[in-house]
Specification:
The structure is a homodimer. Chain A is of the alpha/beta class. In chain A, 41% of the residues lie in helices and 13% in strands. The first copy, chain A, has an eight-stranded mixed β-sheet with strand order 2-9-8-7-6-3-4-5, sandwiched between helices.
């Protein structure tokens, strides 16, 4: 296909006319589709229904060590749940605390606690003039929303195919004591699906922060979320690497089963050094008398072990793979060679990230909206919802049916073409 | 029985010798009993086992409005769960947000949010020189632990049989703008089992705080927790009273099913004005994508409505009534007339509160401990674990079996006698 950039003005104007017409016809269809939500579909959720049967009235809900899961206690979570989550992210069970249904809450609490109580005895961040977080972009809007809520200044760090630009990370972290954290999604990143290279992970572990209370917020949300059976990424264990590099306390790692069991009723965990966990426990022991251990037991009884999780994730992969492929095929078929956008073909995670011509993302999303297809809001993948290039669009293929997704993607590529050509004709 | 105070020194010395001997024999039995924990017993937890069956793989876990409870969303909780919890505390459902398994977490979050973000636009408390909370005493150690954790200064307010000393409350709240809150357990208070009189509730609602961000923390933890079928307390609806008095935003009310369904796997709620709920939602929407709605659905399906909760609570009452009676009978039989302690006979809740002779609580608890009976730590019912009179002891009768409880109470009264007589002989 001929790239738009190489077309003459007349060619562009003529093509534009065709596209405007196609768009009007598409709009007339009155579609109502949604590619905005990083949620599992109903059929994915159906895969785990037997989890609900794993705790029932016919059998005592008692853990391996005899704990009555119905009663108060065990703020660290059930021993066997700690083991299961630890195995999933490849760390020792004693480094893990298992919580309720939302790893986001743990992350929020971690920032909130640092604001009010500092980190392992450091000055509470609320007493500092400036607190900054590094934010690899594009990234996860809910991470950025937390730091924004607490008035933490966010600094964009560009991503490349091996992770965040580590030269910039190293410079900020080592030179600026107001830099207290960095948001990372190290495997199958949201939205690009990029997995950090071994070198990137090692450079993270080797950071020499100016601030003793600098922490890496390592949100390993998609660790088991492969799309393909053969072609899978794996990342190094950051806890182990930090320990080896002499910085055992530099990282908090987060994970959950939200997209393994149930998005609303899974279990979540935080992994870190004993010193960090002790710091966390000081607050946690006041916040709650314990997590929902019955739900932890359900998960352990159903999945049994890491192999159980992996087997289950193959079913999820089978369910979502055709959706990812459908979107990618359409992008390839309709946009390849036009030079009006690039995208990453992810091997896991929940998203496809599309980089439109600079200045076109808002226009594309708004064209889609007008024709009945909802995409994640423009800028959502950047701190302050501000994508300086107005380029990134996050596509979430899992929730719609395959048929809906095909229709939505057809409209999407049409809108990409139209918005791009409108820009080029300006 | 002759009071110890009216005995001659010789009588006291002789009795003391008998008691020391009895204590040595009791100690020799090597008992190991626990009256410290305000936890439901296993047989109480058995009452609700069918809750676990209320969500299973044979039936869609979908709420009344069609929400797939397995997926993300609904940060306010399921509509029908809001109705259930609202009916339990007698407020409109739209004033209620239903959360996870711990009302303590909501309270902690409320204080934490006020520290970092203030209350409805007020100055964040972390920026103030002094923040104070009023603490009716004796009270709940976990309340006090939260405010202590955030460096909030706590002021003791004495309780009488109609609730906190309202003259003191009114004076502090109206005159001191650093007073930002008060911890209340208005019905069957922990540990005394006192229910606030209508006049007390109305005086709360009529408070004219010096601080616009003063809030009543109304922990209605035992609203449905009657011990007797006939003789039950009921308190006025504080939300309604505050609204009538022109202070609709002055109160946060908390409740949970922790001691109705499962202590570790119940559901909890906060009730307040729309303005306060909107303030809460600003943080809550960043903290989590939603509570565990499947567990909410379990509760609604099992209890159905307020009548269902009440019927279930009758079973709890039948289970714990003999335990309360056993303790009270022993106290009555062994201590009545001796003038070495007083206690409240509660009509609900989870505790019996014992007031020893001033300066004797630590000694009694330590004697019990040495002979194998664990009681709640001395001072635990006061801010900073500091009971200025060293008098209050909290007895938790629900968790042990009736037989264990009888043995433990026998030892308890012996230790009360011994510690008292040792003091009188000094």
């Amino acid at each position: 296909m001929k790239s738009y950039g190489s077309m003459s003005r007349d060619e562009l104007l003529s093509l534009r006319q065709d596209l405007e017409q196609s768009y009007e016809s598409a709009k007339a269809k009155g579609q109502k589709l949604d590619m905005s939500r990083g949620k599992p579909s109903a059929s994915q959720l159906d895969l785990g229904m037997a989890i609900l049967d794993a705790a029932n009235s016919s059998r005592p809900v008692v853990s391996e060590d005899g704990t009555d899961c119905r009663n108060y206690g065990q703020p660290d979570g059930l021993k066997e749940a700690r083991k299961l989550m630890a195995d999933m992210i490849g760390v020792p069970a004693e480094n893990v605390i298992v919580g309720g249904n939302s790893s986001l809450s743990i992350m929020y609490d971690m920032v909130s606690r640092s604001m009010t109580h500092g980190v392992m005895g450091s000055t509470p961040w609320c007493r500092l003039d400036k607190v900054r977080f590094l934010c690899p972009v594009p990234g996860y809007d809910r991470h950025f929303a937390i730091t924004e809520h607490f008035g933490i200044e966010m600094i964009n760090i560009p991503m490349d195919m091996s992770g965040p630009d580590m030269s910039q990370v190293e410079k900020y972290v080592s030179e600026d004591a107001s830099v207290k954290g960095i948001w990372c999604i190290p495997q199958y990143s949201n939205p690009q699906g990029i997995s950090y290279s071994d070198e990137t992970v090692r450079r993270f572990a080797a950071l020499n922060p100016a601030a003793a209370d600098f922490r890496i917020y390592w949100d390993n949300a998609y660790v088991a979320h492969h799309i393909y059976e053969e072609d899978q990424d794996a990342i190094l264990d950051i806890l182990g690497e930090c320990e080896k590099a002499g910085h055992p306390d530099m990282v908090y790692e987060f994970c959950s089963t939200s997209k393994i069991s149930f998005a609303g009723a899974g279990i979540c965990a935080v992994a870190s050094s004993q010193a960090n966990l002790d710091d966390i426990r000081k607050s946690l022991s006041l916040q709650t008398i314990g997590p929902d251990k019955i739900n932890q037991l359900r998960h352990v009884r159903y999945f049994k072990d890491l192999a159980g999780i992996q087997a289950h994730m193959k079913k999820h992969a089978a369910s979502i793979r055709p959706k990812f492929q459908a979107v990618l095929e359409t992008l390839e078929k309709e946009l390849s060679g036009l030079e009006i956008g690039t995208w990453v073909k992810p091997k896991g995670g929940y998203f496809i990230s599309f980089a439109a011509l600079p200045g076109c993302a808002k226009a594309i999303i708004s064209l889609c909206k007008e024709a009945g297809v909802t995409l994640t809001g423009a800028g959502a993948t950047y701190p302050y919802k501000n994508d300086p290039d107005d380029s990134n669009i996050r596509i979430a293929p899992t929730f719609p049916t395959e048929e809906e997704l095909k229709q939505a993607t057809d409209l999407f590529v049409l809108c990409v073409k139209l918005a791009s050509i409108r820009k080029l004709c300006r």
